[in-house]
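Please check this.
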Amino acid sequence: MRIMATGMLVAMAALFLLATSMKDAHPAWSFVKAFAEAAMVGGLADWFAVTALFRHPLGLPIPHTAIIPRNKDRIGDTLAAFLKTNFLTPSVVARRMRGVDVAGAIGRFLTDPPREEGRLREGASRLIVDILESLDQERLGGMVKSAISSRIKTLQVSPVLGQSLEAAMDENRHVPVLDSIVTWAGRTLDANEDVIRQMVHERAGWVMRLAGIDDRLADSIIDGLRRLTIDMAVDPEHPLRQSAEEGLARLAQNLRTDPETQAKVEEMKNNIVENDAVGDWMDGLWENGRAALLKAARDPDAALAGKFGDALRQLGQTLQEDARLKAAINQFARRALVGIVATYGNGIVALVSETVRSWDARTITGRLEGAVGRDLQYIRINGTLVGGLVGLLIHVAETTL
């Protein structure tokens, strides 16, 4: 565009020379000369104005030229103030965010991701893969295991276990457990009947063995135990079941309030966490998670095509259809962004101002000229044409009068 504008100015100069040499050949050449002369004046004036914004015309230190390089600090401060006033104040952000449907946009993206987002998704996938592969596996795995272990050790599990046990008992969810224990006891008794008989036989005296009393005694013990398990299985109000429930209730109470019980539970928890087998399990958990992340990141389309993708699409549909959830998410997004602006707005403004101040004159001139230079060259072209037309009109009026 600079070449075109300059070429037009050169063309007007050539036309002026031609019209000057031909003015005696025909009266019409005077009109051409007037047009070309005024066009040169208009083109030169706009060239001076455009050039004076960024540099000294012809390198001459003419006053009020090279405006942008000389005032770059003031421009940076003005730009920062403009951003703060119009964009980075909590009231402005809150007002603009009222009409933004963040939840709906997320829902639409999850339900039907745009095709043009493929390259963006692939780029993000490559970035995630590179980050995961560049991290030190042993060190990061150790950090993950240490973080999990520390978190478990600091978590006091006794009150949680006590509350969970009380809640289970209130909803009778412990009854199937008791039933299973009673059933297991009955099956164990049946499977170990010979062991019980042998124990009775060994502990009976020789007189009892000689009289065969030991066999009858073993039968009585086994029958009594079997009848006890059957009664406990069919009678929910059996005294032993009641005793077991009372014991569970005491255990739940002690887990919540008894320091001695809590200390024992915490000691058991710490011993379990420090066990080598648990450490190996945590290592495997991290490696499996890392491998799953890498697999999903390498092929995001395949990951989104499975159950995880179905869940995301269902979430997207819910975000679009559930008015209460949508309102809650939009409110959270609005408050979060307003909070960010309130906290970091002044820092962003200062960053803009300081960044512009740190640029040298050549840098800011090049960037601004690259951004608006094309339109400024149109000003030169328009100035050449408009100047020529004005000169022609003046010449027509002069000739007529």
